[in-house]
Design goal:
Blueprint (H helix, E strand, L loop, with lengths): L2 H7 L25 E10 L5 E9 L2 E15 L3 E6 L5 E6 L7 E3 L2 E3 L12 E6 L3 E6 L5 E3 L5 E4 L5 E3 L2 E3 L1 H19 L21 E10 L3 E5 L4 E4 L3 E10 L5 E10 L2 E7 L2 E7 L1
Parallel strand pairs: 5-12
Antiparallel strand pairs: 1-2, 2-3, 3-4, 5-8, 6-7, 6-9, 9-11, 10-13, 14-17, 15-16, 16-19, 17-18, 19-20
């Protein structure tokens, strides 16, 4: 469990960021590390190196493993020094959604920069020492882990974890609040076809209409939020009424009105604690 001393004995040859799970903090989770480690045999190689056979236990199961050592000088011209040339590094893979805020592995916060390959939205590959690893999504006010939640993998078994995220109630509410505000802004328009708004007047010839005034009579409710493409839809139709003046054949003007039903499909983005609707149809 002394991963940092293991790094001193055998250089993992990784960037500093990629060593985050090779620190003692990653070994502090219960039943995370190997036990009953012992050497079971050493075989000489033609190049002067040695193949070392070892066994250890992970989660009660015995594991056979190997590493190699090479001579690296001597002390007092008699006692040969050795260097471990193939550290006992393993890999675990975590499949993630693009909207994943972050991950914790054995309680250690990790991101894309700590993986040896991959990015959020694909498979992230991490270098680890033999043991068990508990993977969980770092949740925020707006994004939570879906499915069965945290999962545990073992370097002696399944080394691939699958995570997924979903919109938290707070995100749905934030989109709803932003939708309400933008629809009110649309209703303040004096145009027959407010730009970027989901409702408009179906006038055959807008030059024959004037003095538009919109009123929202029913605001639709956000029902579905996708973190895959940052989109949302409403589950019901909203209602808007527009009053206006219509030009008659004798060129006089008379008041009229029109009721418009609409639903909303749109896109949003999250910036810290702020949610903004970027497109609305």
């Amino acid at each position: 469990g002394d991963y940092e001393e293991a790094n001193n004995i055998a250089d993992p040859q990784l960037d500093q960021d990629q060593r985050l799970l090779l620190t003692n903090k990653a070994a502090q989770t219960e039943n995370a590390t190997i036990t009953n480690a012992r050497v079971t045999g050493i075989t000489d190689s033609a190049d002067g190196s040695k193949l070392v056979n070892v066994t250890y236990t992970i989660g009660g199961e015995p594991v056979n493993d190997t590493f190699t050592m090479a001579p690296s000088g001597s002390r007092f011209l008699i006692f040969r020094d050795w260097t471990v040339t193939t550290p006992l590094l393993k890999e675990i893979t975590v499949s993630t959604d693009a909207a994943t805020p972050g991950l914790t592995i054995n309680g250690v916060e990790v991101g894309e920069e700590n993986a040896v390959s991959g990015s959020f939205g694909s498979d992230l590959v991490f270098k680890v020492y033999p043991g068990t690893y508990r993977i969980a999504v770092t949740e925020t006010d707006f994004i939570t882990e879906s499915g069965d939640g945290p999962t545990t993998v073992s370097t002696n078994g399944s080394t691939h974890a699958y995570t997924s995220v979903e919109a938290a109630d707070a995100l749905v509410q934030a989109i709803q609040d932003e939708l309400d505000a933008q629809l009110q802004a649309c209703a303040a328009s004096t145009e027959g076809e407010p730009e970027g708004c989901p409702f408009y007047f179906w006038g055959a010839d807008l030059d024959s209409y004037r003095n538009f005034a919109w009123t929202l009579t029913d605001i639709p409710t956000v029902d579905y939020v996708s973190l895959y493409d940052n989109s949302f839809t409403t589950d019901s139709y909203g209602e808007a009424t527009v009053t206006f003046e219509r030009q008659k054949y004798d060129d006089s003007w008379e008041p009229d009105d029109y009721d418009c039903s609409f639903y909303v499909y749109g896109s949003f983005e999250i910036d810290g604690d702020t949610v903004t609707i970027t497109e609305m149809n």
